[in-house]
């Protein structure tokens, strides 16, 4: 199997350590929620984007425009397999059933799953998420510049889930994610993730195309960014400031926006 894997386990673990170290540093410096509310309704609201598979002992944050179609297809296949047996020890009672939102369970079950299940966070450059949402027709006929201005006018708190900052949706300071998977590397890392989780490998593998899409978006990002004023770029960088601090999207065109005054 190793011949089929383009990334070594040691490299994967090292990359994960770096990503989680950055995330821990962000959480230590900010006042983000680090404890699940004791109220059932409030806890459900905080965890509203978390999908759980009790069959696979696994949960992840489900966010549109991240590029998870192949991953979700794979989970559906594994959910439907009658003979799925995890290859790692199970240290707690398991409940078999289809994927659900974690918020559908009672508070005790939420806490148990957050403590014992494998937790994965998938992340993507904020500007690419905006472009993906725009290309999917979520702009309602607006130009890209008009689309961005509408988002900025709405603000992060009232933003649609397609472009709301990941820190607000996925609660990475509350949920201690075991893996942080970054768009552009899914195809190299997911097989290792499956193996380490003890998931069966005998399924038809649907290849992730995120690395190719990343190349396409690199060109498209530059074209669409040129339509925005410097003021709008700075406003977008501020809009996603927590995501940049938590995940260090250093290759993003918004990562190093000049702070000088003025716009064109």
What are the salient characteristics of this protein?
264 residues; disordered N terminus; alpha/beta; disordered C terminus; 8% strand; 46% helix; five-stranded mixed sheet
Description:
This protein is an alpha/beta fold and about 260 residues long. It has one domain (about 1-245). About 45% of the residues lie in helices and about 10% in strands. It has helices at about 10-30, 40-45, 70-80, 105-115, 125-135, 145-155, 165-170, 185-195, 210-225, 230-240, 240-245; strands at about 50-55, 60, 100, 120-125, 180. The protein has a five-stranded mixed beta sheet with strand order 3-1-2-4-5, sandwiched between helices. A hairpin with a 4-residue loop joins β1 and β2. The longest helix is centred in the first third of the chain and has 21 residues, at about 10-30.
Strand order of the largest sheet: 3-1-2-4-5
Largest sheet: 5 strands, mixed
Number of helices: 11
Number of DSSP strand runs: 5
> What are the low-pLDDT stretches, counting only 5+ consecutive residues below 50?
1-5, 84-97, 260-264
Count of discrete structural domains: 1
Structural class: alpha/beta
> Span from first to last CA?
54 Å
The gyration radius over C-alpha positions equals: 19 Å
- Average pLDDT, rounded to a whole number, is 84
* Range of strand content: 5-15%
Helix and strand topology:
Layout: H1 9-29, H2 40-46, E1 50-53, E2 58-61, H3 69-80, E3 100-101, H4 107-116, E4 118-123, H5 126-135, H6 144-154, H7 166-170, E5 179-182, H8 186-197, H9 210-225, H10 230-239, H11 241-247
Parallel strand pairs: 2-4, 4-5
Antiparallel strand pairs: 1-2, 1-3
Helix pairs in contact: 1-11
């Amino acid at each position: 199997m190793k011949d089929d894997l383009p990334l070594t386990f040691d490299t994967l673990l090292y990359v994960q350590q770096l990503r989680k170290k950055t995330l821990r540093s962000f959480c230590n410096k900010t006042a983000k929620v680090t404890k699940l509310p004791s109220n059932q309704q409030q806890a459900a609201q905080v965890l509203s984007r978390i999908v759980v598979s009790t069959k696979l002992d696994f949960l992840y944050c489900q966010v549109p425009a991240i590029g998870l179609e192949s991953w979700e297809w794979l989970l559906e296949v594994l959910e439907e397999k009658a003979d799925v047996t995890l290859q790692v020890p199970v240290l707690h009672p398991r409940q078999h059933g289809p994927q659900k939102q974690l918020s559908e369970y009672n508070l005790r079950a939420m806490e148990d799953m957050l403590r014992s299940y494998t937790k994965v966070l998938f992340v993507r450059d904020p500007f690419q998420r905006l472009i993906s949402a725009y290309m999917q027709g979520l702009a309602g006929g607006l130009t890209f510049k008009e689309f961005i201005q509408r988002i900025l006018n709405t603000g992060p708190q009232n933003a649609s889930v397609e472009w709301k900052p990941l820190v607000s949706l996925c609660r990475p300071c509350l949920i201690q994610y075991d893996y942080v998977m970054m768009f552009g590397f899914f195809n190299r890392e997911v097989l290792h993730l499956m193996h380490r989780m003890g998931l069966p490998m005998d399924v038809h593998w649907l290849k992730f195309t995120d690395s190719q899409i990343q190349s396409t978006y690199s060109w498209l990002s530059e074209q669409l960014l040129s339509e925005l004023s410097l003021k709008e770029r700075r406003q977008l960088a501020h809009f996603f400031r927590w995501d940049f601090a938590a995940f260090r999207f250093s290759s993003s065109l918004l990562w190093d926006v000049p702070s000088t005054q003025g716009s064109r």
